[in-house]
Design a protein that fits this description.
By secondary structure, the chain is α/β, with parallel strands linked by helices. The protein has 2 domains: 134 residues, Aspartate Aminotransferase, domain 1; 232 residues, Aspartate Aminotransferase, domain 2 (3-Layer(aba) Sandwich). A hairpin with a 4-residue loop joins strand 5 and strand 6. It is globular and about 60 Å long. It starts with 11 loop residues before the first helix and ends with a helix.
């Protein structure tokens, strides 16, 4: 019967990775893959994570299952890291998941179980896997305006207008910080307007926060998420540890469901447990244990935060350097927005033909919609990219 299976569309990022590997040129630059890289082009293991791993190796005595929602230590630590004191802990149901993708998947599933007729509204553009998961699950979805490609800023008026037509019970999918793929974020004033629409329309906010600490700092990046959950009666939050702890392949994520009526927490928790059981029984624990070990030890946490801050400041420096180099090469302020964006990604606003020229003529690989990974640059490649962009747009 396998002959009836439909061929799956190729993943554009994986395709780009293969094209980069097959390119024989020595001076090629990969700005497509969404992982953090240091100046040497390596995705490092963070110091605190390495120390935690050694400690776990020395002290762990069993590989038995954890509980269905994961360990309490991990869940408590992550709820505190993301939500802070925005809501009481007893209003938050949570479950460990395989990475942020698992958390997003479970968030969608939980929302559909609660409201089978819902529509999920997502930003235009958004992380492609958001839409792919929704389509796979058969959940109706619609895009709301978000990014003005000409100015490189958020189209706040368009976003609010589109969300104003959402029906009660619909889900609004929001990026907590460091918007992927644009890098353009709402201001706190913008967030308050979004929250007002969510409350007025009776919508359920779902926040995907995958880059906490990569933008303006741990607490500053979490501030919008905390504002939403404290202002809305219910919310779903999907968080990832892949980037800020560098544990990409360990798949450490968490889904949280906030209900200001604490009496319903047990039922919500039971549904999250069931989603874990029916999907993979028990979430992987190694990455989660690394994270909880770091967060629960004062010295390890301080070292982790210091290294994370170095990563954040390094990306901000690259952003400013690229914006300055592009201003010099193009003799215009067209790309100044790059310095104002946050996180790993920005969209350059190039056409598909210009992106193709970057790849074929200059060996610079970015996604077809012109999304680039800032963290793939270093001090040597910034001027190379700036010169190449100036050439392709002439």
């Amino acid at each position: 019967m396998f002959e009836t299976l439909p061929e799956q569309p190729a993943d554009k990022i994986l395709q780009l990775m293969q094209m980069f590997r097959d390119d024989p040129r020595e001076r090629k630059i990969d700005l497509g893959v969404g992982v953090y890289k240091n100046a040497e082009g390596v995705t490092p293991i963070m110091r605190a994570v390495k120390t935690a791993e050694k400690r776990i190796w020395d002290t762990e005595t069993s590989k038995s299952y954890t509980g269905l929602p994961g360990t309490p230590e991990y869940n408590d630590a992550m709820v505190k890291l993301v939500l802070g004191d925005a809501v009481p802990r007893d209003t938050v149901a949570s479950a460990a998941t395989p990475g942020g993708t698992g958390a997003v998947h479970h968030g969608f599933m939980l929302a559909r179980k609660a409201s089978p007729g819902l529509t999920v509204w997502y930003s235009d553009p958004t992380w492609p896997n958001h839409v792919a998961i929704l389509n796979h699950l058969g959940i109706p979805s619609r895009a709301y305006r978000y990014f003005d490609r000409d100015s490189g800023t958020v189209d706040v008026a368009g976003m609010l207008e589109d969300l104003g037509s959402a029906a009660a019970g619909d889900v609004v999918l929001l990026h907590g910080c460091c918007h992927n793929p644009t890098g353009a974020n709402l201001t706190m004033e913008d967030w308050q307007q979004v929250i007002a629409v969510i409350r007025d329309r009776g919508l359920l906010p779902m926040i995907d926060i995958a880059y906490q600490g990569f933008g303006d700092g741990l607490d500053a990046d979490a501030a919008p998420t905390r504002a939403v959950v404290s202002a809305c009666p219910e919310a779903i939050v999907a968080a990832s540890c892949s980037k800020n702890f560098g544990v990409y392949k360990e798949r450490a994520g968490i889904v949280m469901a906030v209900d200001r009526d604490a009496s319903r927490r047990a039922v919500t928790q039971g549904n999250l447990n069931a989603l874990n059981r029916l999907t993979y029984s028990f979430a992987p624990d190694h990455g989660a244990r690394l994270v909880s070990t770091v967060l629960s030890d004062e010295a390890l946490r301080a070292d982790w935060q210091a290294e994370l801050e170095d990563v954040r400041e390094g990306m901000l420096g690259l952003r400013q350097a690229l914006a300055d180099a592009l201003r010099q090469e193009t003799n215009s302020d067209r790309f100044d927005f790059l310095a104002r964006h946050r996180g790993m990604f920005s969209m350059l606003g190039l056409s598909p033909d210009e992106v193709k020229s970057l790849r074929e003529d200059h060996g610079i690989y970015i996604i077809g919609d012109s999304r680039m990974n800032i963290a793939g640059l270093n001090s040597e490649t910034v001027p190379i990219l700036a010169k190449a962009v100036a050439e392709v747009i002439r």
